[in-house]
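Hi there. Long-time user, first ticket. I'm pasting a complex I've been working with (about 731 residues overall). I'd like to know whether the download I got is complete or cut off, because the file seemed smaller than I expected. Thanks.
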Amino acid sequence: MPKLTIDGRTVEVAAGTNLIEAARAAGIEIPFFCYHPYLTVVGQCRICMVEIQGQPRLAVACATPAAEGMVVKSETSERAREAREAVMEFLLANHPLDCPVCDQAGECLLQDHSMEEQRATFTTHMTETRRTFPGYESRLIGPHVIQNQNRCIHCSRCIRFTQEISETSALTYKSRSNSTFIDTFDGKPFEDPMSGCAADVCPVGALTVRGFRFRKRAWKLRSTPSICPGCSIGCNIFIEHHERVVYRFSPRENPGVNATWLCDYGRFLAESLNEQAYLHPQRRVSGQLARATWGEVFPALSTELKAARSLRVVASANLSNEELYLARELFGRHLKGEIVVPVFPGEPRRMKNGKREWLTSTDAHPNSHGARRLGMATVDGEGLVRFLRGAAGTTVILDPSAHPSLASEEALQALGRGPLVAFARAKHPVADLAGWLLPTPSLASNEGTFVSSTGSVQRFAPAFAPPGTVHRTATGAMSPTCPTIASPWGPPGEARPLWVVLSSLAREMGVATLDLSSPADIFALMARTEESFAGVDWEELGVQREQRSYRERQHVG
Amino acid sequence: MSTRPLVAARPETIAEVTFDATLEERIVDLLRRYPTRRAAILPVLWLCQERYGWISPGVIRAVAQRLGESPAFVEGVVSFYTMYYTRPPARYVLQVCTTLSCAYCGGKELVEHLKGRLGISFGEKTPDGEFQLIGVQCLGACGGAPVVQINDDYFEQLDIKRLDGLLDELTGRR
Ligand code: SF4
Ligand code: FES
Ligand code: FES
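Hi, the file is complete. Here it is re-exported in full:
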C-alpha cells in the first residue's frame, strides 16, 4: 500500500494504482483523454502530465504507478501546466471547435478541460488552415453510431474498446500522422453488439449515438440510478430523463456487473419506457371499459377478490422483489390463490464485467433470480398456458409483458372464460378482456430491488412521477419505436406502481402486516422474514441519489 | 534495362483469397523468424503483394485470418504504409523523389516533364494502365540525385533525355 503526496495531499492507495486514480482518491482531478479505467493504458494523449519530485522529466500520470513516498505535483506545477497547454494547442489546432452544434457539448472531456483548466484561453502558433476529413463529418459508421472525424483527437479509446471489451476489433486507425482517421474494415458497417459504448468512450463528439443525437442537450438531463430491464444480468444504468421523458440509458459503473458498459439491446430499451398506453384505472361496465378512480378500485376489487371462487395469479419476473413478495403474501398466503412467475428465455445476451469476464444471461427478465429467491414457482410458455387453462375462476395478471405467450391465441381464449384483473402499461390484448384494467408506470417511475444473475441485490430509484398525459409521436416524440411520449405539462398521471396498489389492497382487506408505505419498508420486512434476504440492508444497497449526468459520466468519458 | 513490369491480379480474382501451398510454405518459414504472429504482418503482406501485385480487401482478410488478427487491424497496418498498393498498380510505377537534393539537381523539372508526357499527376495512372506516378520523399540516394525509382529499380542522375529514353524503352516493350 504505497503512500504518496499529490499537490500536498497525502493518500494511501493499493499497489499498482496509477497516479490518475490515486489523485482521484485524494480529491484531485488530473485531466485525461486517452485513459479509461477499464481499458488498457496507452499513454498517448499526454494531457495527464505531472511533475514528480526527483525526476527530471514530466511523467504521464495514467501510465505511472503510485510508489511509496512519491511527491507529485499536478495543479501546483508550472511545468506540468505549460506542458498541458502545449498539448491542448496541438489538439485544438485541428479541432473544429464547433461545440455549439456538437451533440457532445456538456459531456465532452476536451471542452471541459479547455473551459475549466485553461479557462477557455487559447493561443495558437498555427498559420495553416485546419485539417478536415471531407465526407467524414457526419458519417453513419454503423447502425447506431455517427462519426465526425474532424472532431477526433486520436485517443484510440474506441479502438481499444472494440479490441478489448466487445472483442469485435471492428474499429481501427487508417492512414497515418495528420491524416489518421477511424474506420472499419473495408468501410463495412460498424456492427458490434455494444456499439453504443464506442460512442460512450469517445471523449469528444467524434462518435455519437445516432438515436440520441440532437434530442436533448446533455446538461438538461437528470440521471437516475436504475437497473437495465433487458435481461437477467442486471447491468447498472442511469435513466437519463427530462420533464418526464426518458431520453437514454447510460451505463453506471459497477465493476462486478457491467464495468462501464451496456449492450445496444439494453441501451435502446430506454425509449420504450415512455410508452404509457393506459392512463387511469378502468372497470368494465356492461361490456365497456369505463374510467374509475383508485378510491373506487380498492374496496370493490378487494371484495371481488375475496369472493373469488378460485384465484390464479400470473406474476412476472419483471417485477421488483418487493412487488413479488407482496403478491406472494397477499394473493398466495392470504387469499390462497395459485401464483406463477413465467420466465421467457429470450435471446442470449452477454456482458463484460470489470475483470473482463463474460457474464451471460439466463433469461429475458431483470428479476427471475429474485422470483426464485422468493421461492416462487416459475413456468415456461407452455406451462403458463396450461396454468391459465386450469380450473375456471378469477385471474390476475400483474404484468402482461411477463411472457410473450400471454398474447397467444390459447392464452387469450383461456383468459376469456372468467373474470380478469389486469395491470398494464403498454398496449396489450389482455386489456380487451379485463374486467379491471389498472395502469402501472414504467421502471422510471418505480422503486425497488432486482436480483441479478450474479446473485447481487440491486436497487433502482424512481426518476419521475408517472406521466399524466401522453402525445402521439407526430408531436415531437423520440423515434418511430416509441409510439407515445409523456407530456411535461399537466399533473402527474394515475398509474401506480404495483407495490402501492398491492399494499393498499392489503389495507383494504385488513392485512395490516402488508400495509406498507415504501419499498424500503417492504424490503425491511423481507429482510426480517425471508431467509434468502436475511441480513441485506436497504440503505447499504448503494448510493441512490440523482446525479447531474454529465458530471457523473465524466469518469467513463 | 532489366526492370520487370508489375503484374496486378484483377480485383475479381482476389476478392476471396486462399493461400496456395507455395505461399503457405513461405509464410510458415517467415513465422519461424518472428516472436509472434502479429510481428510477421509486414513481411507476410509483402509476400502477398509480390504474389498478387497489390493488397485487396480479400488479401487483407486472408492475412488476418492466417495471423489471428482482425481484418480491421491488418487494414490499419496496410493503410499506414504507402508502399502497399491498395489498388491495382500500373505495370510501371514511377516514384519520383521530391526532396531537397533531388529537387535542386533537376528533380522539379523531371516531375514537370513526367506529368506533361504522361498526362497524369501524382497518385494517378495512365488510362492504358502502363504508368503510375508517385511523388515520394528522399529515396536515400541523394548522391545520385535526381532519382526516380521504377518498380524495384533506382535510376540515378537522370535528365529529361535519359528519362525519356527509359520511358520509350518501357513503352516500346509492349
Ligand atoms: S473517435 Fe473518439 S474515441 Fe475514437 S480515437 Fe477519435 S476521439 Fe478517440
Ligand atoms: S491520459 Fe495519460 S496520456 Fe492520455
Ligand atoms: S533527396 Fe532525393 S534521394 Fe535523397
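A couple of notes from our side: Residues 131-273 of chain A form a domain with the Alpha-Beta Plaits fold (CATH 3.30.70.20). Confidence is low (pLDDT under 50) at residues 472-481, 548-557 of chain A.
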